[in-house]
């Protein structure tokens, strides 16, 4: 028994979305990645429904193994890129908070003349 053509087509579509998401993540196009991720998630849901009703045979899974491996590899790389982006955003937020705190401190002391004291 071979895999049904519509299932294979959906797995290929999923792989295409995954490759596009990886490309966008590498290019830092985060908004575009989110748009593709919506289609990716929809395709995953469709495949889950389809395979829940008609589980794949061992032979079909063997046929899909290269596609599944590629999907997992892409997902791992995308997660790594997203983790880097998250760290970058956290750094920017922390920097902004420090600047805001500094400006607040400066503003509260503006107009004061600070004179060194004798020790």
TrEMBL record:
Source domain of life: Bacteria
Claim: Transmembrane is one of the keywords in the record: no
Signal peptide positions (record): none
Pfam families: FliT (PF05400)
Predominant location: cytoplasm
Localization terms from the record: Cytoplasm, Cytosol
Keywords: Bacterial flagellum biogenesis, Cell projection, Chaperone, Cilium, Coiled coil, Cytoplasm, Flagellum
InterPro entries attached to this UniProt entry: FliT
Matching Gene3D superfamilies: Flagellar protein flit
GO biological process, one term: bacterial-type flagellum organization
Keyword Coiled coil: yes
Coiled coil: 71-99
The protein's name in its UniProt record: Flagellar protein FliT
Organism this protein belongs to: Izhakiella australiensis
């Amino acid at each position: 028994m071979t895999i049904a053509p519509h299932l294979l087509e959906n797995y290929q579509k999923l792989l295409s979305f995954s490759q596009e998401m990886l490309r966008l993540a590498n290019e830092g196009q985060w908004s575009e990645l989110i748009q593709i991720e919506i289609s990716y998630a929809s395709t995953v849901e469709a495949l889950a429904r389809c395979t829940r009703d008609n589980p794949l045979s061992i032979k079909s899974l063997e046929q899909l193994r290269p596609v599944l491996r590629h999907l997992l590899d892409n997902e791992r790389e995308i997660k790594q890129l997203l983790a880097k982006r998250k760290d970058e955003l956290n750094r920017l937020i922390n920097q902004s908070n420090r600047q805001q705190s500094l400006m607040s401190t400066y503003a509260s002391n503006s107009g004061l003349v600070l004179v060194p004291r004798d020790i």
